[in-house]
Write a structure and sequence with these properties.
Blueprint (H helix, E strand, L loop, with lengths): L1 H18 L7 E3 L15 H7 L8 E4 L8 E4 L1 H5 L6 E5 L4 E4 L1
Parallel strand pairs: 1-2
Antiparallel strand pairs: 2-5, 3-4
InterPro entries: Cupredoxin, Phytocyanin-like, Phytocyanin_dom
Organism: Gossypium australe
Protein name: Stellacyanin-like
Length: about 100
């Protein structure tokens, strides 16, 4: 009887282990080699950058810039939709900045 229950437990473990997926977060450098800057010639720079990426909860966005030259404001969804920074979650002007989604 002990051998049978041991085999059953082993089978259950194998099934559970095969259904679990591991997730490793990804760090995305915003703008890649361009970094975080005000686009001078390509106003779609960040739209184009994000087009081929799939972001998930737990991923990090890394904003590379020189301290004091730019800032990063984390906003709520309504703030984003309204394009306003009046009710920010956080603001940082000390580069680089990493925000976890």
């Amino acid at each position: 009887m002990g051998r049978k229950s041991g085999m059953t437990m082993a089978a259950i473990f194998v099934v559970l282990a095969s259904t679990l997926t591991t997730y490793a977060s990804t760090t995305y450098t915003v703008g890649d080699f361009s970094g975080w800057q005000v686009p001078t010639s390509n106003s779609n720079l960040y739209d184009n950058w994000a087009d081929n990426k799939t972001f998930v909860v737990g991923d990090d966005l890394l904003f590379n810039f020189i301290t004091g030259e730019h800032d990063v404001a984390e906003v709520t969804e309504p703030g984003y939709d309204a394009c306003t920074t009046t009710d920010t979650i956080s603001t940082d002007n000390k580069g680089p900045v990493k925000i976890t989604l």
